[in-house]
Amino acid sequence: MDVKCINPFVESVDTVFQTMLNVQPRRQKLKLGNGQGNGAAVTSLVGISGQVQGVVVLRFPAETALQIAERMLGIEVSVINAEVVDAVSEIVNMVAGSAKAKFDYDPPLELGLPTVVQGSDYKVKYPSGTTWLEVPFESDAGNFRMELTFESN
Amino acid sequence: MKALVVDDSMTIRRIVIKALGMAGINDTAEAADGEEAIKTLQGDTFDVILLDWNMPKMTGIETLKTLRGNGNKTPVIMVTTEAEKSRVIEAIKSGANDYLIKPFSPDQLAAKVKNVVGAVA
């Protein structure tokens, strides 16, 4: 995976969080990921296919997921419910959609429908040899992590 | 003034409905996919449709083409993450009246709606 592919996704996280949540995320140091939950309470992921293919994964601790739903919906939530799941699902959808447009392939890359996983005892399987890159973020809505695998066909 | 909001995300439907209120449109209906939208439009009329692209069962672009193929001329604003120029062109050629890329602010959506249906507030 070309590390430069990370940049459109990082820029998209910035745009989505600022526009939809009024939050400025602060990118931390890039590292290798492993596709595992690693303590996340809610994970939203979406596949991208076309001339390149991959998966975009956002992993949120419970507090961050609740904050995201509260900020998007303007309501108070205290437990991970359908509203929270839907909110984080839409966040990963917007991040992936916004990023794929920056690559500007013709025909455009295709987005899958987002999937949300609750709990952390899981691993996202992808073809062997796939490299996962992880970008941690800090924000006023809480910490979260983005993990990506993205390869040319 | 009445609007139909079509998006598989309940969160986005709520955000759009809130923004429509800013544009002076408080009479709204919701559909979670294109099939549901088509059914809703068979029994009711609307002044504007806010239409997502990526949805299960029937995508937004399929829905738009179906509506225009059936002679439905209700103004449609695509509200979608699909931001590539070719997508915008495809939507406009298929009969969309305007196009709003997610993420968006409520002000942006309200402005698009006012532009398409006129100031109603």
Describe the protein in words:
The complex is a heterodimer of chains A (153) and B (121). Chain A has 153 residues and is α+β, with helices and mostly antiparallel strands. Chain A contains three helices and eight strands. In chain A, strands 1, 2, 3, 4, 5, 6, 7 and 8 form an eight-stranded antiparallel beta sheet that branches. In chain A, α1 crosses α3 and α2 (62-73) packs across α3 (82-103). The radius of gyration of chain A is 14 Å and the shape is globular. Chain B starts with a strand and ends with a helix. The longest helix of chain B is centred in the first third of the chain and has 13 residues, at 10-22. Chain B has one domain (2-106): Rossmann fold. A five-stranded parallel beta sheet of chain B has the order 2-1-3-4-5, sandwiched between helices. With 121 residues, chain B is of the alpha/beta class. Chain B is globular, with a radius of gyration of 13 Å. The interface between A and B is medium-sized, with 28 and 23 residues.
CATH class of chain B: Alpha Beta
Topology of chain A as a string of helices (H) and strands (E): HEEEEHHEEEE
Query: What does the main sheet of chain B amount to?
Result: 5 strands, parallel
Q: Which fold name is given in CATH as the topology of chain B?
A: Rossmann fold
Gyration radius of chain A, in Å? 14 Å
Percentage of residues in helical conformation of chain A: 25-40%
Number of domains of chain B: 1
Task: Tally the structural domains of chain A.
Answer: 1
In terms of quaternary structure, the protein is heterodimer
N- and C-termini, Cα separation of chain A? 11 Å
Averaging pLDDT over every residue of chain B, what do you get? 94
Mean model confidence by pLDDT of chain A: 90
What portion of the residues of chain A fall into strands of 2 or more residues? 25-35%
Number of contiguous helices of chain B: 5
- The amount of helix of chain B comes to 40-55%
Write down the CATH class of chain A.
Alpha Beta
